[in-house]
Each structure stands twice: as C-alpha cells, then as structure tokens.
Design brief:
Number of domains: 1
Structural class: alpha+beta
Number of strands: 5
Helix content: 10-25%
Radius of gyration: 15 Å
Strand order of the largest sheet: 3-2-1-5-4
Length: 105
C-alpha cells in the first residue's frame, strides 16, 4: 500500500466588497494554502484574521476530491462575518500535489 496521496493547493481571493473595507482588504487580495498546510500571503500584503477564520473550516475539505453531488464540490463562495464589510471570497483549486504521509504528521 502506497503512502502517497493527492491534495489540492488552494487560493482564496477577495471577489467583492458589498460594504466598506474595514480591514483594508481590496478586491483581488488573496492567500494560498499549499503543500497541505502552508499559508502564503504575497509580500507586502495582509489578510484579515476574521475573514480567514470564516474560510478555515472549509479548506481541508476543498483540498480533497469530493463526490460530485457534495455541496462542497460546487460551492466556493464564502462571506466574512463582518456584516458592515460584506466581504466575499472565492476558494479555488490551483494545483494538485502528490504528498507522502510520512512527510506529514
């Protein structure tokens, strides 16, 4: 039995701000989740921890292949919990990576 498995690298991008950007994010700002657990934010940028907290519960599932009819396979839009901000983010898969279980916890 092989210890290799596949996970998707993800990008979470701000696609819309329906209110005012209290945290300073702008449309197009993003972070990436790569190599199973590495969070990458472009140099000189930031990402609001409250917006991040709203997508974190979904990322582990979005990294994996899902059944075709699973709602997580088709839904990729997440809203920040700050109602005044109205920040909308999109989760997208950007690459598929082969990993080895022995290299992770």
């Amino acid at each position: 039995m092989s210890d290799e498995f596949s996970l998707y690298d993800l990008r979470v991008t701000v696609t819309e701000i329906r209110g005012r950007s209290v945290c300073g994010l702008e449309i197009g700002d993003y972070f990436e989740l790569t190599e199973s657990s590495r969070l990458r934010i472009p140099a000189g940028k930031h990402f609001c921890i409250f917006a991040l907290a709203s997508v974190l519960p979904l990322l582990a599932a979005k990294q994996r292949d899902l059944p075709e009819n699973d709602w997580l396979a088709t839904d990729s839009t997440v809203h920040c919990p700050d109602p005044e901000e109205g920040l909308v983010m999109r989760i997208e898969r950007i690459a598929c990576r082969q990993l080895n279980r022995d290299d992770l916890t």
